[in-house]
Design brief:
The complex is a heterotrimer of chains A (about 270), B (about 425) and C (about 375). Chain A has about 270 residues and is α/β, with parallel strands linked by helices. Chain A has two domains: about 110 residues, 2-Layer Sandwich (Nucleotidyltransferase, domain 5), CATH 3.30.420; about 140 residues, ATPase, nucleotide binding domain (Nucleotidyltransferase, domain 5, 2-Layer Sandwich), CATH 3.30.420. Chain A has nine helices and ten strands. Chain A is globular and about 65 Å long. In chain B, strands 3-2-4-5 form a four-stranded parallel sheet, with helices on both faces. In chain B, strands 8-7-9-10 form a four-stranded parallel sheet, with helices on both faces. In chain B, strands 1-6 form a two-stranded antiparallel sheet. Chain B has two domains: about 240 residues, 3-Layer(aba) Sandwich (Rossmann fold), CATH 3.40.50.11900; about 170 residues, Rossmann fold. In chain B, strand 4, helix 6 and strand 5 form a beta-alpha-beta unit. Chain C has a four-stranded parallel sheet with strand order 2-1-3-4, with helices on both faces. A four-stranded parallel sheet of chain C has the order 6-5-7-8, sandwiched between helices. Chain C has a domain of about 140 residues: 3-Layer(aba) Sandwich (Rossmann fold). Chain C is about 50% helix and about 10% strand. Chain C is built from 17 helices and eight strands. The chains are: A alpha/beta (about 270), B alpha/beta (about 425), C alpha/beta (about 375). Chains in contact: A-B, A-C, B-C. The interface between B and C is large, with 49 and 47 residues.
Amino acid sequence: MKQERENKIDVVIGIDVGSVTAKTVILDQRKQIVGYSVVEEGLVNEESAIASMRQALEKAGLSQENVKFVVTTGYGRNLLHFHDKSFSEISCHAKGGHFLVPAVRTIIDIGGQDSKVISLNGGGKVETFQMNDKCAAGTGRFLEVMSRALKLSFSEMGELGAQSRHPSHVSSMCTVFAESEIISLAAQGISESDIIAGLYESIARRTLSLMGMIQARSKVMMTGGVAKNKQLVKILEAVIKMEIVVPPEPQIVGALGAALMAHQAMGEEA
Amino acid sequence: MGKANRLKCLADLGKEINEFYMRYKRAGEEGKTTCRIMGYPLPHVILRAHDVHYMFLPSYAATSAARGVVGRLHQVAEEKGLLREVCSYVRANVGCAFSAEAGIAGADHMYSMPKPDFIIVTESSCSMTFNWGDAERRIYNVPLFVVHCPYVWDEADEKDAVAEVTRQLREFISFLQDITHRRFDWDKYKRTMALAKETAGLRMATMDEACQAIPSPATLFDWTSLLAIINYLIGLPEGRDVALRVREEVIQKMERKEGAVVPEKYRLYWDGIMIWPFLGKLAQKCAALNANVIWSRYSTFSFWECPEMIDLENPLEGNAIQVVRLHFNRSIDWLIENITHFCQRYRIDGLLFHANLTCRTMAGPQLEIMDAVSRKLGIPAVYFEGDMTDETLISESQMDTRLQALIETIEARKGK
Amino acid sequence: MSNLLEKIGFVFEDPYKRAKEEKSNGSKVIGITPMFFPQEIVHAANCVPVILQASKEPITLGFSHYHHFFCGLTRGIVDLAAKGKLDFIDGLILSDMCFEMRHVADPLRRFRRFPVIHMQWPLEANEERWLDFITGRLGKCVSKLEELSGNRIGDQNIEASIRLYNKNRALLRQIYELRKVKPGILSPKEMSALVISSMVTPVEENNKFLSQLIAELERLQPKVASDTRLILSGHLCHEVKDGILDLIETMGGVVVGDDLYTGFRYYASDVDTNTPPMEAFARRYLNLKIPCPTRVDIKRDWAEFLIQSFKEQKAKGIIMILAKNCEPHMIYYPYMKARLESAGIPHILIQVEHEMVSLEGIRTRIQAFIEILRG
């Protein structure tokens, strides 16, 4: 019976097709999350977006037939040929963040290729935003390159970074040059934990610059894969001197926002 | 591994510079006339003669960087919307202008400077200084005077350019009289100019002699520190005294055949502005490779570089010619010819180009100079990117790699 | 109408096509770097003036002559010159209003492929101080051009040329006014093409073309799907490439005004025919209708101009387009930002560059901005 009931429900979907992962959130008519997924991609493409959607539907015990409206966001938002609407990730992160924490006024999203800071008003509307310049320093890509250089996984990096007493100074704004900078730091005998903490501080400083441009205010939420790194969040809090709220699944906030957009659009069409 | 043995008498310059800023701030507090200057250090002697205190903005940025306090100023400027590609001197000074608003004014004595009574742009082939002056004019809401130096496309253009700048300096003096309600004292100007001429003359002569000596008793890192006697102290007896002390130490070292880098195996030319936060570090790096950076167009073709042209009976014209002859204001052919000449005169083995990412005026002709001069002299050249004050734009490991590569290439060519 | 516009379709891919044709017909072609130098003077010398455009090619040889941290326009010019692709010109007038353009002279003078005439503009819009300086300099350029072209350039010739170019600018302004009232008649890219056509085709031909176009445009009654009215501002010395202008309309905005170089900025100010020509050119430079951030201007304020345009056009937002490494624009920007913020005008800054690094990033920014405007 339950199976039957679930199979009859109408849902909407939000898909965030980023540069590293594709995320899907499924909402029912009461705006409850009934399923979600995060799928790693090689290059941003339609297949991974579809795979993400399928995975989420499967976990929720649903199928394509239940889906009434699809909104996409992220770099690959126009790749999916069957979406009903697409919105920028700025609007979607704001929507998703506000839904989770209505008091949020600033969202920091550090994704694979991008960092953005978004300023919202009390109604959850975007007031203004800033994105990182061409430089990838301060993004997930930066950390990826560093983790390869140090031959550590992200969680190993996080653990080691937490042990640092004297974070080293990594000044370069360029991911490419920063890599050679840490190699020479390592050659000088500086500990891995100090190097990693230095990298995190470098990202934090970059984020602080972006925040300064939009006069960020509290409550601050952090979204995106990099938000799962507790050590980085701690360092960021110290640098920006504000508490940061990280939702349980920070990577799906954009997709959640897209799903909420879908919900709203459906309501408007009804 | 070589050791750095820089000029000892320059160690006190930091104190003089500090006192300069204390005096400037006091003048602001006491309601004396103050001004900000962006561009060439052109009006310093005129201002000194008229008891107007000045802040020379490029030096302010350089000093803040050398003291390690420029980062926050850059941050304040960035929050105002000034992008990082903008000249880092501008960013440091705009950061200073907004330091109170940003709440950092109390964090370092360099962060709080008085509002000026006027601003003067002394442009010589750096069009950006106009934009800078206009921006600060709006920030401070004070009068702006502009001196624009015609570009010397060919040397035949020099005479008209000097006449034009002299005319503008005369205008500036009228402007000064209007704004201070005091008449300009031409006799005091002549006397101050005499000191200026002496100081600048001592600097140029000492540098030339020292750069010819093998080993050289000083390095470019000394010469760039010495620029303080022009930017901060020109026209003051203190400036002349420092120049005399430098001369004395240099002569003594030359007599003892004591080099600034021991042992001096490689003599380098540097192109580009100095990297102010790394002055000491750079000196060490080069010395460790037994390399002495001997000279640069930055210090030799600028900063009151032709004091011998000053006729004390006609000081305004001699003042004007300094800015006309600035290397920024010269054609590419002139640059190539003269850099080649002085590299030969100073027995240079290799060329080191610092492509300062936020100073396009300096960097503009670099690739042409590098190509032409290295070919003419048959010596190797390398370039690395950096900046004069913004550490986020500098990659030390890149610098190290390229410096080392240059030395190895010189060595390889010497072996042939 | 699309047939008419097709006539100038070449301006994006091969802007120098007409100039090269004139050259093979025996005319002398004189290149002029943006901005400010009067084409009228070259026209009066019986030569074909062509204002240099942004390069359409990836920069290759240019990198060994000009650093990457210069603006795309100047790097492109150096690159094309290095490759010999500007060899069709008989001479170049280097209009020096910015050090990034000034230093183009360094490699160009070493290439020795064509003579370069230097015109330096004092960067302060103050007539009292600079009128004579400018007329003197322009006079020197006239002499050098006479030498180069082998033709005497009398005042009467220049006056005749001024009338033709004033007519050209008036026609472009007429189209601008039409677009204000009927925003759908031309896309931003098409407007840009019109201006570029004026820069790179003989003026007599261009005047005829624009007149024909106006007749057609007047008949159009386009539907405009969007009411997200936008003003585009900036990009001071060359065209905005890579379909960014079209992107703005694809994302749902409609452009009702601009102050771009290949836009209103180019044709806003006429040359006064009641004044001797050199003085008239100098006065126009010193009294530009659209304030320019390359110089100090106490009397005119670009931010004020933009705020007025915004109100007049009943726009919803302003998209500022900054060519990467354009220092005059970058230095002006904080003031512009503060003024627009205090006037409550929504705005966004888009940075573009010669090597388009991330069109997706720009698409995201524009889409997000339009979403904000729509509420």
